[in-house]
Amino acid sequence: MRWTPKGYGGERRTPEQVKRDGWLEYGILVVNKDDHRLTWPERQLVRQLGERLFGKRQQKETCDG
Question: The domain containing residue 39 runs over which residues?
Answer without folding.
Answer: 15-52
